[in-house]
């Protein structure tokens, strides 16, 4: 491996194995920059809602790409069906983060459908967050709703089709960090955005931005980019399963995928969270493994 690609910091990562759709693309985008990757999954291959997960398929993908032996399995019991799914989500992440914290300066917490488009830039930003003494790094993600053709996506936007970053939680945290809900935590954050002022409509306008990058340098979050059959299963295992359960949610996704231009044109009349624009992202990353599409 080219040693120049390594971060000067000792960086570990954890991943939650559940969905193989973009697992290969996600891990490959930062594999050579980290020292260890903790693989967290339920021993019984169950989701936070108790539905079955394709864990064996995920493990096969990891085994193929783990050429340096960096990945460490950390199974556990995370499907407590008497708890809220987001409680299970947070519990599993904390368990994985605690393991990944050993001998680390930082721990990455990227989901398996999040792909670093410019990993070297990401780790350069992390070095600046480290120098600033921050407890975590907020790094922008471009939230992709649907793949309408190769390299062309419906992307969640700000009002009037402005580019907008998404922040599900800091993508890197200090070892020993305590999580409050999913990836969120109450620590001082080094904030990277896609413009000098806050671009995320879910955050206060006065949110401080420490560094600005181009949208094409952000994380590509293939959140709802799935084959229809996989999307139905994702709705069942997600920590937000209760909100996704109504059939109207899936029907709206399918309709917007078939009619992307109408979805973009009418989104200006919709509430926050339902604004979209058409955007291009390179392929790869993007698309889905053939074995997932064929299901």
Q: Could you characterize what this model shows?
A:
The structure is a single chain. By secondary structure, this protein is α/β, with parallel strands linked by helices. It has helices spanning 23-30, 55-65, 85-100, 119-131, 228-237, 241-244, 247-258, 260-266, 290-293, and strands spanning 11-16, 36-42, 71-76, 106-108, 114-116, 136-138, 141-149, 152-156, 172-173, 189-193, 211-212, 219-221, 276-280. The chain has a single domain, classed as Spore Coat Polysaccharide Biosynthesis Protein SpsA, Chain A (Alpha-Beta Complex). The protein is 29% helix and 20% strand. Helix 1 runs parallel beside helix 2 (55-65). The longest helix has 16 residues, at 85-100. It is globular and about 50 Å long. Residues 286-295 have low confidence and may be disordered.
The rounded distance between the terminal residues' Cα atoms is: 36 Å
Helix and strand composition category: alpha/beta
Using the coordinates shown, work out and report the CATH topology.
Spore Coat Polysaccharide Biosynthesis Protein SpsA, Chain A
Q: Major sheet: order of its strands? A: 3-2-1-4-9-6-10-11
Count of discrete structural domains: 1
Number of strands: 13
The profile of the biggest β sheet is:
8 strands, mixed
Q: What would the principal axes of the Cα set say about the shape?
A: globular
Average pLDDT number: 89
Q: Gyration radius, to the nearest Å?
A: 18 Å
> Which regions are unreliable across 5 or more consecutive residues at pLDDT < 50?
286-295
CATH architecture label name = Alpha-Beta Complex
Any idea of the CATH class? Answer: Alpha Beta
Compute the number of helices.
Answer: 9
Compressed to H and E, one letter per element, the order equals EHEHEHEEHEEEEEEEHHHHEH
Percent helix range: 25-40%
Strand proportion, as a percent range, falls in: 15-25%
């Amino acid at each position: 491996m080219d040693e120049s690609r390594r971060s000067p910091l000792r960086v570990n990562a954890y991943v939650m194995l559940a969905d193989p759709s973009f697992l290969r693309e996600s891990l490959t985008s930062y594999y050579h920059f980290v020292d260890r990757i903790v693989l967290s999954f339920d021993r019984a291959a169950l989701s936070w809602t108790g539905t079955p997960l394709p864990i064996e398929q995920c493990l096969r993908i990891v085994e193929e790409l783990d050429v340096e032996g960096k990945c460490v399995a950390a199974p556990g019991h995370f499907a407590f069906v008497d708890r809220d799914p987001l409680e299970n989500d947070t519990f599993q992440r904390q368990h994985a983060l605690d393991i990944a914290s050993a001998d680390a300066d930082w721990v990455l917490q990227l989901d398996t459908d999040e792909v670093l488009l410019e990993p070297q830039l990401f780790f350069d930003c992390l070095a600046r967050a480290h120098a600033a003494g921050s407890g975590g790094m907020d790094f922008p993600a471009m939230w992709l709703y649907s793949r309408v053709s190769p390299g062309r996506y419906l992307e969640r936007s700000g009002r009037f089709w402005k580019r907008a970053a998404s922040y599900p939680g800091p993508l890197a945290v200090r070892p020993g960090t305590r999580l409050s809900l999913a990836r969120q935590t109450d620590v001082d954050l080094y904030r990277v955005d896609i413009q000098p002022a806050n671009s995320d409509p879910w955050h206060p306008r006065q949110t401080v931005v420490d560094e600005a990058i181009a949208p094409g340098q952000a994380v590509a979050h293939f959140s709802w980019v799935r084959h229809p059959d996989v999307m139905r299963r994702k709705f069942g295992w997600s920590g937000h399963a209760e909100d996704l359960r109504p059939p109207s949610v899936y029907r709206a996704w399918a309709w917007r995928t078939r009619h992307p231009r109408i979805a973009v044109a009418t989104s200006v009349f919709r509430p926050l969270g339902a604004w979209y624009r058409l955007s291009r992202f390179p392929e790869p990353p993007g698309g889905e493994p053939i074995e997932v599409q064929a299901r």
